[in-house]
Amino acid sequence: MNLSENLWKFALSYVPLTEAEFKYVHSFFEQRTIKKKEKLTREGEVEKYANYIESGLARLYFTKEKKEVIMQFSAENDVICCYESYLSGKPSKFTTQAIEPMVVLSITHENLEKIFEYSPKIERLGRLFARDEYLKNADFDYNRLRVNSQERFINFMQSNGDLIQRVPQKYLASYLNIKPETFSRLKHLLKKRS
Questions:
Q1: pLDDT digits over 44-99, tens only?
Q2: Interstrand relation of 102-108 and 67-74 (parallel, antiparallel or unpaired)
Q3: Could you give the angle at the alpha carbon of 105 between the alpha carbons of 102 and 111, nearest 5°?
Q4: How far apart are CA 21 and CA 167, in angstroms?
Q5: Is 154 within 8 Å of 162 (Cβ atoms)?
Q6: CA-to-CA distance for 31 and 125, rounded, in angstroms?
């Protein structure tokens, strides 16, 4: 597998790595191609991989009363994983699915532990990444529960406007905890203002 420039830039955004260090780390990743609508992990399965997305788009969701509740979208230069299952080895409460065809670089938990042992820098990268994911999820949870639907919609459009063209509207409405008809109305209101 060729070295991933994107993954290297991702790693460098957290810690300074030499090319030799990165080559060693990169050797533990497996490149996989995922088809549109293919499930990377299903609810009830143990998550095998943390997946760095080279190209494409995925969602993470769970099912409640036969409805899908979307918790996350991940696109290029992001990671998609059912973290609780990946870290604990217990069955996942979530499903991850490709919205677009994807190319991912995947690493098992066992191999992740090996590269953490290899270098304190890599372990620091993991800690900083975990911190960023926690803060992002805490902010998302706060906004989803505290902010009204119009504010959630506007905040999302300001920070993730590119996803509006890539993600089906029903998925976006679920993610923002907004009824699909409310999402449509807000989308039209925003267009009129522009």
A1: 999 999 999 999 999 999 999 989 999 999 999 999 999 999 999 999 999 999 99
A2: unpaired
A3: 150
A4: 36
A5: no
A6: 21
Rounded to two decimals, what is the model's pTM?
Answer: 0.90
Amino acid at 83: Y
* Residue among 106, 103, 4 at smallest CA distance from 12: 4
Q: How far apart are CA 176 and CA 149, in angstroms?
A: 7
Distance CA 24, CA 11 (A): 13
The string of DSSP codes covering 8-24 is: HHHHHTTS---HHHHHH
Q: Which amino acid is at 47?
A: E
Q: Using a pLDDT cut of 70, give the percent of the chain over it.
A: 98
As assigned by CATH, the class of the 5-146 domain is mainly beta
Task: Indicate if the pLDDT at residue 104 is higher than 90.
Answer: yes
Q: Are 159 and 151 in contact (CB under 8 A)?
A: no
